[in-house]
């Protein structure tokens, strides 16, 4: 290869620029439609509609220009740079074009430098044009929701996103010899590595009891995938550390692209992936990816046992390995390289040996209570899953030594608990902060009844109630706006906004909590409860507390304050209809009454009886087993239709069985 200019070349730049000029034009048009044109249309609407709110009261934490049409902007930022990179490196996938470029009096470094410069300029100019148009429009806007400074900030952030995508595309392009695979592999590189880690962790939970999967999931899906992190920008803008990390990654990619291009064979245009090592990485990483997906599918979606998990692994690996070999060999008449598949299978199998050895130490690790400074215990399945900042600097945690001792005892019980998927179950997370500053996290799937029983003493402690119960959280909040009471007996919720009324109601609810455990971690949201109280505070989500017949002080407060009719209590139910099931056909009619609302209990074609005695109605609700299809069904009227509870023959009272005999 002839030597030549080391860096930028004007003629080469012009030649490459001509190939992507229209891409830059289309990007400029797309950005103009998303921002200045859309702003102009909104301005016309604002001037002609006195009720149009617009962005006048913008209080977001991200740049307002970015938030104005962020979904469409992100699509543009993640597609146009990839298209530019594919077109600029298209000569690498065509033999005649490759021979032509490499016959020019330039070093390969010069060619690649011009690719980067041409792409960078093509992506930057549309941003500048859009920024100028937005600045020109600014003085004429009634709703000036952004500033001139915001324009420069938007250009900078947008350019960094597109430049990162472009650099990644160019780097991937150096390693491939097919334009179609170039685009697909670019997005694969962004998404698959984090998903492989996530799938490995997900599949590890089948072998390691207590693996704290949820502790890693959110981080991997947001910070581990660039697209996911972009979606989170409106909630959490890039930090300085993230800017530095992405800059470092981009610099490494640029250096890697120069090194790889210098060693890339000119005749590699007939190969799907150029380098042998990268070909193996492509083959086996994606085989692993699909294998783990199949294992997850057979285990989680189809609820299969370990045998079916293994079947999923083998089937997924075989399918992925075969298809990927077809891509690499560029033929459907595949010469199946069985030795590589056998080696892959042996390596994966051998990796399970150290996993099983380490699993025992991991599973049995329970810190001594004296080593723990604080502990969090909660369930993401709970009605009040406390994952957000409750006006405090850290997640709510238990610090009382007695409560910590109880959590460690619960932890030991959960290690030995084998939950039944056929029954109701929940996920429980335990996060310890130890005295030395280190942390230890575990996650368990447990059945509801087990969870309710094993946490009863903990939920009765004052430390747990003050930390996790919504009543105590609301009582100490200065931002309690109002309270709402909902029940299935009353179509309209009761709104309580008077500060004195709210304080007295909270005191009544706290009085009930003095004699009973908190329902957090063991909430039974059955429809026959008296209702639920919603606490509206300045939090991401409102908190809720259930009210049952055991909450005597709370129910008495409602009666004394004139809200008795709103309570869903047996004494407020005038009558119920009891029917005896005769099999699956009856269950289908029950669905038509309760869920589809196509029938009423009077339409049933089985014998029914009507109960009007309040004491008998009370007894039926006390023996019910929830909305399970038992031997007897109790239908009752709600504000929006019908619901039911059920019980079995063994629990049926005499006043029921005697009328059906």
TrEMBL record:
Locate the transmembrane regions by residue number: 20-41, 70-91, 111-139, 151-177, 184-208, 243-261, 273-298, 310-328, 340-362
Instruction: Please indicate which superkingdom the organism of origin belongs to.
Output: Bacteria
Instruction: Show the InterPro entries listed in the entry.
Output: ABC-5_transporter
Keyword list (alphabetical) reads: Membrane, Transmembrane, Transmembrane helix
Q: What is this protein called?
A: DUF6449 domain-containing protein
Q: What is the lineage of its organism?
A: Bacteria, Bacillati, Bacillota, Bacilli, Bacillales
